[in-house]
Amino acid sequence: MPSATAAPLNELVAGTRMLALVGLAKNTGKTETLAALLREHAAAGRPVGVTSIGRDGEAHDVIDARIEKPRVQLQAGDLVATTGALLRDSGVAHEQLSRTGIRTPLGEVVLARFSKPGHVEVAGPSSAAELHAVGEEMLLLGAEQALLDGAIDRRAASSPTVADGLVMATGAILSEDVGEVVEVTRDAVDLVRLPVAEDARGDVSPEGDRDAKLVQVARRVALGAEPGEIAALLHAHPQAHTLVIDGALGEGFLEGLLAARPARAGRELRVVAADPTRVFLAHRGPRWYARQGIAIEVQQPIALKAITVNPLAPQSHRFGSRQLRELVSEAVPDVPVLDVLDESYLALLK
Amino acid sequence: MPESGARPQVDLARVKPYADHLGDGIVQFSFTLPVPYGLAARKAAQEWAAKMGFEHPEVVHYQELTDGYTYFVMFGESNQTVDYASLSQEGFEIEYMSEEEIEDFARHRIGRQIVVVGAATGTDTHSVGIDAMLNLKGFHGHHGLEGYKAFQTHNLGSQVPNSVLVSRAIDLDADAILVSQTVTQQNLHISNLTELVEMVEAEGRRKQIILTCGGPRVSNELAKELGYDAGFSKGTYPHHVASFIVRELAARNGPGHGAAVTDGAAAAADA
Question: What is the pTM of this model?
Fold first, then answer.
C-alpha cells in the first residue's frame, strides 16, 4: 500500500477547523467514518463539535429500514447541534447552551454540550450557510474541530464557503462491478478537485462586449440551457475562451456548448464556477468534457483530505477491502484511501 | 374486565396490530412470488409467511399475475409488539389552519401575495400530486393554492428539469418551491430531490426560498435528510401545505411574526 495511507484519520485531518464528511451515496460508510474519527478524537482527549446538514446517527435507514446504522457516540465535553427533541431522546446528560432559531422539519436546532458520554441522533441546519454558522459557533464554544456531516449525496456541506476540509466516503453500494465503483469515485474526486482558475477572478466582462476573453454568463442562460441562447452567446463573443458562471453549472449548459459547434468555431473553452459544489454533472465526468475541448475550472477549490471505502453493500454484495482500497488508490494516487473498519487500519491506531 | 360498551384499555407500551379484537395481532398482507400459479405456489406463500414469523398464516386470495408469477393476499398473526408510549412526538406539529384563517393570517402577517412555484421534476411524469396542491380544482373539495387570494401560483407541470425549476423560481422571485416526486423506483426521487436543493444552494438562494417536497414516500425525516424545509406525504391537503408556507414565511420575516415550528423540547426548556 502507498505510504500516504499509513496515518490515522485524525492525523490526516489535523489542522482542519471545519471538516465536511460527504458520502457518494447512502451506505458508503460516512457514519462509520464519523464514528471512527470521533473515537480517535476521544482517545486524544480532544473536544469536538458535531452537526449534520441532514440527519445522522439514526437507528434505522430512512429509505431502507432493514439497514441498521452505526450510532454517533460523543464524549463528555463534546458539542452537538441537533434538534431539541432528538437531544432529549438521546437520554444523555447535557447542558443546553443556546437555541439557534434554525427551524428544520424535525424541530429547532439547539446547541448543547454533553456532560456524559452517550449517543445521539444528529439533525442540524439544512442550509449550507447555517451549517457554517453553527460550525463557527461550536468552535467558539471550545470545540477543536467542527465535524459537518453531509447527508445522502448532498455536497453543499463541502463547499469552501462552509468547510475547509473534506473526507469523502465511497463504497460497494455504488455498483456490483468494482471497476464502476472506482470510476464513479474517480469522477467524484475529479469534480471535487477541479483545477483552480487563478486568472478568472478579475476582469470578467458582462455579456455584450465583443472582444471580451472572459465572459460572465447570465443565470438565465446558464440554468435555462437553451441551445439557441448558448450559441448566440458564443456568436456574440467570438474572442471568448472563458465563461464564468456565478451560480449552478448544469450539464445542460455544457451540452449546449457542445452542440453549438459552428458558434464555437473550434475554440477550446473554459467554464469557471465558484467552487465544485456549484457544478452538476450527472452523466459525464470533467475528464470527458476536457476531451471535447471544454475545461471545467473553479475559483475556490475543496481540500480533499482522505477517501474512506466501505467494501460492503448492505443486503447485496461485498468486495475485498484491500482490493477496493488498492483500486481506488490507483485511480486517485495522491489521496489517502482508508477502510476504517479493516484490521489494517485498526492496527495503525495501536 | 371492562363493562360491555366501555372502550377496552390499550397498553401503549405493547401495541400490536388489531383486526377482530384488541391484541389479536392479525395482519393482512399482499405480495407476489415469481412462481407459476397453483397449489405449490399457495404452499410456498404459506411457508414464506411462517418464516417471516407469522402464526397461522392463511392464504385468503391468490391469482396468476402473469405467466410464472402469482399474487397473494394473506392473513397471519404476529406476536411482535411496539412500545408506542416511548416514541416521541418527533418533529414539528403544524397547527393547520382553515382556508379563511390562512387568508387572514397572510393578509396580516405577510401583506402581499406569496409566490409559489411547483413542479414534478426530473423524469417524473406524474403531475397529479402537484395539481392537487396547486390548481384551483384541488381535490376532495379542498381548493388548491391557486384558489387562495394569498397565493400567486405557477405550476410548471411534470418532467421539469431541476435547473429550469430553479431558474423560473428565481425569475419569479418565488417565496416557496413545491416539488412532487411520485416515481420512487431505484430511489430515483432521492438524487432528484437532492439535486434541486444543491442547485438552490449553488444559486445562493437557499435561505430565501422555502423548499417543500411531497410524494407517497416522502416523510419529515426524509425531508430533513434531503435538506428540505418540510415533506408532505399521503393524506396532505392544500391547506396543510398553505398553513406551513404562511407560518414559515412569517417566522422568517422575524420574531413576533409567529413561528411555523413548535418544538416540544425547546418549549419545555423555556418553561
Answer: 0.78
